[in-house]
Amino acid sequence: MRRLLLPALLALLSFPIPPAQAQPAPPDWAPPPYLLLGPGGQPIARVITTAETCPPAFLAGMSVPMRVRAAPSLAFPVLTCELPVPPSTFAVTINGVTLPLPTATPQRIAVIGDTGCRLRGAEIQDCNDPNAWPFATVVASIAAMRPDLILHVGDYLYRESPCPPDRPGCAGSPYGQNWASWRADFFEPAGPLLSQAPWVFVRGNHEDCARAWEGWFRFLDPHPYHPSCQPASEPWVVPLASLSLLVLDSSSLSDTELRPAEVALARRHLDALLAQQRGPAWLLTHRPPYGVGHFSNRPAAQPSNVVLTAAAPARWPEQLTAIVSGHIHLWGVVAFSPSPSQRPVQWVIGFSGTSLDPGSDPTLEGMSVAGELVAAGSRNLPQEFGFLTFEPAGNSWLAVARDRNGFPFVRCRQEGKQVRCA
After folding, report:
1. What is the CATH class of 105-421?
2. Which residues pair with 34 in a beta bridge?
3. Of 17, 40, 274, 390, which one's alpha carbon is 20 to 30 angstroms from that of 4?
4. Which residue positions in the chain have pLDDT lower than 50?
C-alpha cells in the first residue's frame, strides 16, 4: 500500500499551485485617515467612513469628537469627517493610526500630478495593468522614501466612461462622478501614502464644475464644505518656516481663450496671494502658465494658459521662485533668462499615472515661451511615468525627477530663479 501511495503523494506535491489572486477590497472598505494643510497652514485631519457616525480623534491620548464634513448621498454613500488640529497638538490618532503633523522645515517634498486612469470615450487606459497605469507603484516608491510633505497638483479622477466590453485591461472599472470612481482612481491606490505625511491638494480641471467637483469638495478642499459647485476655490497660503506655498485654483481657467472675467478673477486671486507672501515662496496651481508640451511651436511657443499669463504681475516678486503645476502629461522644467518680469521657474509634474502626452522635443533651449527667452538647462522628459522630489541644499533646492520605481533620471539644482539639470 505504501508503494502505491508514495507516487501519488509525490505527484500531488509537484502539481503547480496557481499564484494567489489579489482580492478586491470589501464593500465597506474605507481609506486610512489623512492630514491636509489648509489656509494659514492649518492641519486638518480627515476620515472617510462607511460607519454611521464619525470616529473620535485622540489628541495626546484625550478623545476629541470629529465633526461631519459631508453626509452620505446616493452617489457618495460614505461619511466624511474632519477635525482642525489645534496648534499645541503633538500627536493625532484616529482609528489606531497616528498622523504625522507638519514640520516647519521639510527635508523631502514629494510632488505628484495627474494620477487617475483615463477612461473617456475612445481614450482607454488599462486600469487593471500596473504597467499601463502605474499610480500604485508611484505611491509605493514615494512611501519608501518617507517624505515630510506631499503635494498633489491636481487631476485625481479620470474614469468618466465605461470600459469597453472588448477591453479586458479595464474590465470591471467603475466610472462617473461617485465614490466608487474616487475610491478606485485615488483613495485605494494612494492608501499606503495617505497617513504617512501631510498633504497639500490642488484642484485640477478634472475637478471643475463639469466633472468631479463633488468629490473635490467632500474629500480634498481645505475650506468649509460646499454642497454645490464653486467654480473657483478661494486661494490660500501654507506658511512654513523655510517656504510659503501659495495655492491658486486654476481649474476653470481656459488654456486657449482669453476671457476677461476669468482674467479678472485670476488677477484678484494672484494679488491676494502675493499680498500674503513673506519670504521664499512657490506658487502651486494645476494649469501651468509657462509649460511646454507637444502643442508648443518653435521658436516661439504660445502660453500654455493664456488667462494666467494675462493675469500675471508685470514683475513677479523676487522671492517667488517657482510655479509648480501639472496638467501637461509629462515632466518638465522651464526657466527663463533674466528679464524685468522676473519670471519664476515653471515645473510641470503631470506624469504620475494618467496616459502620457505624445513625445515632444526634450531640449527647450533657444525657445521663447509667452514672449520670453527660455534659459539653458530647461528640458522636458516625455513618455516616462514618475514623480518629483525636492530637497533643500543650502540656498538652493535639489529637484530629482524619478521614474515610477523611484530611480532618478534627471537631477536639477534650482538656485533663485535659475536651474541646472543633468
Report:
1. alpha beta
2. 46
3. 17
4. 1-23
